[in-house]
């Protein structure tokens, strides 16, 4: 869009008069097209926030799992193929936890604390679009790290990764389920300090005390039960099987569980929270 | 006149009942008027405004916009009210023109009209030279103007502007007031201003509401408020250095004299006594050693200070 201020002066009155008549009536139900336009501009705002820094964010999000991957390579002398696959799939989930849960939760909490929601709340935008913009941001910021870790895992552990179509829905659902979870944390926590504390604790807990990098049977029974309340458990299990080229019934259950996590988090935010209110 | 907002017995309590922000506030905002909400820092002005834009829920009482409860129909508020807040702006990573254009689009205006309005308000706010700069890389004052341009470009029926002229130089402040007045005059936009800038607001507003300690102290037209507080005119004298006491002796024969500074004194006179006083002054100009004198009506600032607005600021 090229703005010419001189030309603007002559058309001031006509433009204002013309546009006044086009302002939508209050509480008018929006069509799919206008909802799409709304989401597009909300995403453009989200993109603007990361357009200068996204490469660094992606690299930093990959660094932690990359270090863990190397550590395990040096630490484990001769892991079985199943353990190797568990480590690789676990380290693919790692950036999902960092970006979708930790990063997104903190970003939402920070925006809330900075008063950015005041601007969004003053606009006639739909709550679902407002939420989707955050989830899609989390998704797009996570995807590059997931791809990087898949490639790195393949070369470090020389695991035979079976690329198949099933990987697409499991990665999509793993990220959206976790992003929904991160969004929920960001909205529900009262301030950013609390969010940082919760997400940091959660990052360590999910990576090391739930079946992300180890098998569920290696955990005490209490942790096994607790694990089922987190989307990353299903994401790691489904991903491990699909990277081996196996789409069993447990993979379908994992996908359904991740879908349920996504829907549940969206439902809680949309139905139970009035984001316009402080 | 049609009522835009009806605020009825609004009470707002924070921190589990420990902090009373608003207490039993009742008033209406009429269509097409410019109403200023004045009050010292911490008086509860912004809290009230947040409730009016449905971003905070009253503890008790009700606020309606065009007859509909703002909390229940919060999307109506977002649709019809343009709110310029004091909080940092969410669009800091967009360029100035992107921010204005995106805001207009998110208010439901079609692309061509949004482009028109973006050009229009960039021109009006004199932002052409920084239109392509990111908002986070421009000055605080320019950011404020860009924010105001975005609110105006949304073309809402009601404008609520919270401290719109903070951080602005006198020329830009005048520009903002002129544009607010123009929008009100040409499009009939109802405007609610929250401001500390009493002197400048006086040039723009129709009515004034003064809030202090969370309570509405008074709401009325500027003329009525001035008459209510003190209808007398002020006669201010600037005297030659060293002649103040001599002048005061003479002036005290015609009324009460108040010393303002070493060379300045003031008298308050009823309107019907002014001509007699002026005759006396002209006759005794040399004896008064008077360099200059002026007759001024009471200002909105006088009203503001008298009705409680100045109390807390003085202590802060």
Summarize the structure.
The complex is a heterodimer of chains A (278) and B (316). With 278 residues, chain A is an all-alpha fold.
Furnish the topology, listing elements before pairings.
The complex is a heterodimer of chains A (278) and B (316).
Chain A: H1 5-20, H2 32-50, H3 54-75, H4 81-114, H5 116-121, H6 127-157, H7 167-188, H8 192-209, H9 221-227, H10 231-243, H11 249-272
Helix pairs in contact in A: 2-6, 3-4, 3-6, 4-6, 4-7, 4-8, 4-10, 6-7, 7-10, 7-11, 10-11
Chain B: E1 3-14, E2 19-30, E3 34-38, H1 45-52, E4 60-65, E5 68-69, H2 74-80, E6 81-84, H3 96-106, H4 111-124, H5 140-153, E7 158-162, H6 170-187, E8 190-194, H7 198-202, E9 207-212, E10 215-221, H8 222-229, E11 233-239, H9 244-251, E12 257-261, E13 264-269, H10 274-283, H11 285-288, E14 290-296, H12 300-306, H13 311-315
Parallel strand pairs in B: 3-8, 3-9, 6-7, 7-8
Antiparallel strand pairs in B: 1-2, 1-4, 4-5, 9-10, 11-13, 11-14, 12-13
**Shape estimate of chain B:** globular
Helix and strand pattern of chain B: EEEHEEHEHHHEHEHEEHEHEEHHEHH
Name the CATH class of the largest domain in chain B: Alpha Beta
Main pleated sheet of chain A: none
Domain ABC transporter (chain B): 5-238
Keywords (chain B): ATP-binding, Nucleotide-binding, Transport
Family (chain B): Belongs to the ABC transporter superfamily.
Organism (chain B): Paenibacillus zeisoli
Can you characterise this structure?
- The complex is a heterodimer of chains A (278) and B (316).
- Chain A has 278 residues and is mostly helical.
- Chain A is built from eleven helices and no strands.
- Chain A has helices spanning 5-20, 32-50, 54-75, 81-114, 116-121, 127-157, 167-188, 192-209, 221-227, 231-243, 249-272.
- In chain A, helix 3 packs antiparallel against helix 4, helix 4 (81-114) packs antiparallel against helix 6 (127-157) and helix 6 (127-157) crosses helix 7 (167-188).
- The longest helix of chain A is centred in the middle third of the chain and has 34 residues, at 81-114.
- The two termini of chain A are 35 Å apart.
- Chain B is an alpha/beta fold.
- Chain B has helices spanning 45-52, 74-80, 96-106, 111-124, 140-153, 170-187, 198-202, 222-229, 244-251, 274-283, 285-288, 300-306, 311-315, and strands at 3-14, 19-30, 34-38, 60-65, 68-69, 81-84, 158-162, 190-194, 207-212, 215-221, 233-239, 257-261, 264-269, 290-296.
- In chain B, strand 1 and strand 2 (19-30) form a beta hairpin.
- The radius of gyration of chain B is 23 Å and the shape is globular.
- The interface between A and B is large, with 51 and 54 residues.
- Chain A: It holds the Pfam family ABC2_membrane.
- Chain A: GO terms for molecular function: ABC-type transporter activity.
- Chain A: Belongs to the ABC-2 integral membrane protein family.
- Chain A: It is found in: Cell membrane; Membrane.
